[in-house]
Design a protein that fits this description.
Elements (H helix, E strand, L loop, with lengths): L2 H13 L2 H7 L4 H15 L4 E2 L6 E2 L1 H33 L1 E6 H5 L1 H10 L7 E6 L1 H9 L5 E6 L12 E15 L17 E6 L4 H12 L5 E7 L2 H9 L5 E4 H10 L3 E2 L7 E10 L5 H9 L4 E2 L2
Parallel strand pairs: 3-4, 3-5, 7-8
Antiparallel strand pairs: 1-2, 5-11, 6-9, 6-10, 6-11, 6-12
């Protein structure tokens, strides 16, 4: 049974005439009649009384008509919903952003862009660096926001993806203060320092590993691991150990004295905030956003 036969059935039931129904269906009357016969063969019973003028439905046809009308109505409704979904998808912007930037940089940044460009629907995936990279590879996101560092190469193929610097940040070694306001733990202290580390999925973890490869820091003893800077921030604030945290995430904690720099020997690690995208052309709204982000410098 073909979908078009159902439309043929309704056309003949409404017009009561083979010629008019065939014209409505944009075909010759013989071809139209053959398709009606095929539908009746499929149904296993005559659907039209051809002895009357105008042609009327048989009892079997009357029983079939509500079902056919419901099928056609539902299919038309589903098609309209699919068209609306496709239109919304074409106008939507899909971002993948690391956890810390989702909390700190992204809200103000997208609001600023929204004051210059009608952005429409926005979908944000807030995840680890590894999960964001996978979203880009699977085309689940059009853009990715992450931290970058000169010593850490992007894992997304430069032949397929490009990047743009849209901001700056820094990683700071931080700890909770003791009762006198001094850091509970120090970089390079005599005893082993409890270290709150990033997991392998974390982009910040890659950056810290690269920095420590060039300037090793002895005496760190990993006691806790997470891919989320926000989780490490809470652990550090509770006095559980030392964590390297982005300044954008902890600026208020530093101002309030809830976190302090871990000793005089502590040095910040400079960070860039990167916007990545596929090199292939994207939707019109995505291309407009890319043009609107005036770069400090562009990636390869």
């Amino acid at each position: 049974m073909e979908f078009a036969w159902l439309e043929d059935f309704i056309a003949l039931a409404e017009s009561g005439n083979f010629s008019r129904a065939a014209e409505r269906r944009h075909m010759t009357q013989p071809a139209f009649s053959r398709r009606v016969r095929l539908l009746e063969d499929w149904a296993g019973a005559p659907l039209f009384d051809r002895s009357s003028q105008p042609i009327t439905l048989t009892e079997a046809g009357e029983r079939l008509r509500p079902a056919v009308e419901e099928v056609l109505r539902r299919l038309a409704q589903a098609r309209e919903e699919l068209r609306q979904t496709a239109a919304e998808s074409a106008s939507a912007l899909r971002f993948a952003a690391t956890h810390s930037l989702s909390l700190t940089f992204f809200p103000a940044w997208i609001q600023r862009l929204g004051s210059e460009l009608a952005l429409g629907p926005i979908h944000l995936l807030s995840e680890s660096m590894q999960a964001c990279e996978q979203a880009m590879l699977e085309s689940d996101a059009q853009f990715m926001l992450c931290h970058g560092h000169d010593a850490v190469a992007q894992r997304l193929d430069a032949a397929q993806f490009t990047s743009r610097v849209i901001g700056e940040d820094q990683l700071l070694p931080l700890t909770a203060p003791d009762a006198s306001g001094r850091p509970c733990f120090h970089i390079g202290q005599d005893t082993a320092t409890p270290f709150l580390a990033y997991s392998d999925e974390s982009g910040l973890g890659r950056i810290i590993a690269a920095a420590q490869a060039t300037r090793p820091q002895a005496g760190l003893r990993t006691i806790f691991t997470s891919h989320s800077a926000a989780v490490l921030r809470m652990m550090a604030s509770d006095g559980r150990g030392l964590a390297w945290l982005p300044h954008s995430l902890v600026a208020e904690d530093l101002a309030a004295g809830r976190l302090v720099i871990a000793g005089q020997n502590a040095e910040a690690i400079p960070l860039r905030i990167l916007l990545l995208r596929p090199r292939a052309r994207q939707s019109q709204i995505a291309e407009s956003l890319w043009q609107l982000t005036k770069p400090a410098s562009d990636g390869p």
